Predict the structure of tRNA-dihydrouridine synthase.
Amino acid sequence: MAVKIGEHIDLGKFPLLLAPMEDVSDPPFRYVCKQNGVDMMYTEFISSEGLIRDAAKSKQKLDIFEYERPIGIQIFGSDIESMRQSAEICTLAHPDLIDINYGCPVKNVACRGAGASLLQDIDKMVAMTKAVVDATTLPVTVKTRLGWDDNTKNVYEVAERLQDVGIKALSIHGRTRAQMYKGQADWRMIRDVKRNPRIQIPIFGNGDVDSVEKAAAWRMEYEVDGIMIGRASIGYPWIFREIKHFFETGEHLEGPTIDERVEVCKTHLIKSIEWKGDKTGIFEMRRHYANYFKGIPNFKEYRTKLVGLGDHNEILEVLEEIKERFKMHTRTRSSIYR
Ligand SMILES: Cc1cc2nc3c(=O)[nH]c(=O)nc-3n(C[C@H](O)[C@H](O)[C@H](O)COP(=O)(O)O)c2cc1C
């Protein structure tokens, strides 16, 4: 049966979602993920205060493109009225849905009463969610964690109460706030939520999926409606097509050739320049090169070259050189190469 968010967003049988990631899930990166089969994507998180103040950085994150659909804009904040207003602003940007971030653990978000901090005040979280739901005609979804810490793993209650005020899907990262990104994600409570007979909305599992094998095993073991992938897609957007191919055929797709790696990296660079301009586009792309060529021995020299160049034609030339130099490099799949 197809997974649906609200009445109109049909995600097919078992969707793969690109996790919202600050400084990563921007339009250039989303472009290459979309090319590689992701079913649904989110923007980076956007500060509700920033949106209201009309801050350029926040406003730029509202840029979404037709080919990206279905796409959600993710917002965070600590003030209910600001969240309500920013839901109105986001609605005007015409995403397919609005997602609320109740999962961010980093200090300057969670310690200012936003993100995962709302896991300590469920009443406020519920009121905030209701305000956002009431402020928009779009479906509202939520992304959160298991709880604040080991003593307060309250996602079971959170799921029920947020469903009651109208959210249309819930993504759960199998860690607490206290864990930040340490240890291993534990999906058992995600399964508990999914098994709750009161829960009707799709439940997406998130945390540590980095291979076809894990996606296949955890799909069965934890009974989720879809999987959200973050870090493993950075520099490796092929993970989406590899997992999808396996689910559709039961067979493993080979990993990308060196030519494919170069071509996708180039596309990412070109889109980056198109969207951010030459200077910022080239600068912000620097963080991605090592990821695109991870696992390739003796790549360092080329990475140093790539991050040292400021002219996009020269960068494109070096990327072509990489094809030649590493053409004997064999294909690798996500699980093997990570
Ligand atoms: C660089 C980075 C930025 C992130 N930014 C966001 C964000 O803006 N909003 C959000 O809900 N989660 C954010 N996260 C958390 C991810 O969405 C995801 O929940 C987490 O990385 C676990 O999934 P993974 O193991 O597949 O990466 C971020 C994670 C990383 C690594």
In short: The pocket of flavin mononucleotide is lined by residues 19-22, 24, 44-45, 74, 101, 103-104, 143, 173, 206-209, 229-232 (CB under 6 Å). The radius of gyration is 20 Å. Residues 4-249 form a domain with the TIM Barrel fold (CATH 3.20.20.70). The chain has a mean pLDDT of 96.
